[in-house]
């Protein structure tokens, strides 16, 4: 009896708190548009800025060259490593010693057979024959040594090849490129300035894709929102409720932490739209998210 009365009183109270939300919809709270990517593009090495190939307000593509840091020393180091690599390649492919060792072996064994015949005839002493036997064995060992030296030379060539690749990478690190398609929000580096590893050269933001974050009340929608559910997003471009951009999206993230206010975070990614040269939606704009059950 008591439980039935409690249910009777609790249901109207819930309806009064959220009177306008259909049963098949979940309304997120405190929704805001935010960046997905907003980074300070860093320098990776120290040196003087020799070229700036961008300015504030420019749009750059992923991989586009933005800054060139002085690479004079790195280029000289690369030329040296190329020469050392070429020398190592010549050593690795040089089989002259191996061929000579094989010819010396054939000669040594031919002499050994001749000395064996002379020994049978008693024309030479025993130790002369043994000396030739040792020389033939040494000739065989020289073949093994020549083959081992070729293997060592090949390993040295691989090491020099890696050093050359590292020298090329040192040059690449002095050419700073855009990590993604983006909009240059700020130019930080100056032409001729000395930068350090980690020094930011520009602030790059992504505007073609953004995310909308909001919060779900666990007291009303406990464990009802999951990743992949369809969402209707409305973004308000100004303070009025008239200038609205609408998107169809899906839940991309559901937070695992519930705050003291009994809210947990969700977010969706949206493909931004353009009007002329301007993006319609910008981070910081107010939004609404309706999750459809």
Descriptive tags:
single chain; 293 residues; alpha+beta; Elongation Factor Tu (Ef-tu), domain 3; OB fold (Dihydrolipoamide Acetyltransferase, E2P); 3 domains; six-stranded antiparallel beta barrel; four-stranded antiparallel β-sheet; 4 helices; elongated; disordered N terminus
Tell me what you see in this structure.
Strand 13 (244-254) and strand 14 (263-271) form a beta hairpin. It is elongated and about 125 Å long. Helix 2 (72-93) packs antiparallel against helix 4 (126-172) and helix 3 (96-120) packs antiparallel against helix 4. By secondary structure, the protein is α+β, with helices and mostly antiparallel strands. It starts with a helix and ends with a strand. It has a 6-stranded antiparallel β-barrel. Strands 3-10-8-5 form a 4-stranded antiparallel β-sheet, with no helix packed on it. The protein has a 4-stranded antiparallel β-sheet with strand order 7-6-4-9, with no helix packed on it. Helix content is 38%, strand content 31%. It folds into 3 domains: 20-36 and 207-292, Elongation Factor Tu (Ef-tu), domain 3 (Beta Barrel), CATH 2.40.30.170; 40-70 and 174-205, Beta Barrel (OB fold (Dihydrolipoamide Acetyltransferase, E2P)); 72-172. The longest helix has 47 residues, at 126-172. The model is unreliable at 1-18 (pLDDT under 50). The chain is built from 4 helices and 17 strands.
Task: Please give a quick description of this structure.
38% of the residues lie in helices and 31% in strands. It contains four helices and 17 strands.
């Amino acid at each position: 009896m008591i439980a039935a009365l409690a249910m009777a009183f609790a249901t109207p109270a819930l309806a009064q708190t959220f009177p306008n939300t259909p049963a098949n919809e979940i309304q997120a709270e405190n929704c805001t548009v935010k960046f997905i990517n907003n980074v300070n593009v860093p320098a990776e090495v120290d040196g003087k800025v020799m070229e700036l190939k961008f300015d504030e307000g420019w749009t750059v593509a992923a991989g586009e060259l933005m800054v060139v840091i002085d690479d004079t020393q790195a280029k000289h180091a690369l030329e040296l490593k190329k020469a050392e690599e070429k020398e190592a390649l010549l050593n690795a492919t040089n089989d002259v010693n191996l061929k000579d060792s094989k010819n010396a072996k054939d000669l040594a064994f031919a002499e050994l057979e001749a000395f064996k015949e002379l020994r049978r005839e008693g024309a030479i002493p025993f130790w002369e024959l043994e000396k030739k036997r040792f020389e033939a064995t040494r000739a065989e060992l020289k073949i093994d040594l020549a083959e081992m030296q070729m293997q060592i030379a090949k390993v040295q060539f691989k090491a020099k090849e890696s050093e050359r690749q590292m020298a090329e990478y040192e040059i690449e690190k002095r050419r700073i490129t855009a990590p993604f398609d983006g909009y240059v929000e700020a130019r930080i580096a100056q032409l001729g300035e000395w930068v350090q590893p980690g020094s930011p050269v520009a602030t790059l933001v992504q505007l073609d894709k953004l995310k909308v974050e909001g919060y779900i009340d666990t007291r009303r929608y406990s464990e009802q929102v999951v990743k992949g559910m369809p969402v209707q997003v409305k973004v308000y471009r100004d303070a009025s409720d008239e200038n609205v951009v609408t998107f169809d999206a899906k839940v991309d993230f559901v937070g695992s932490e519930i705050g003291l206010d009994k809210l947990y975070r969700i977010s969706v990614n949206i493909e931004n739209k353009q009007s002329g040269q301007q993006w319609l939606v910008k981070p910081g704009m107010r939004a609404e998210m309706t999750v459809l059950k």
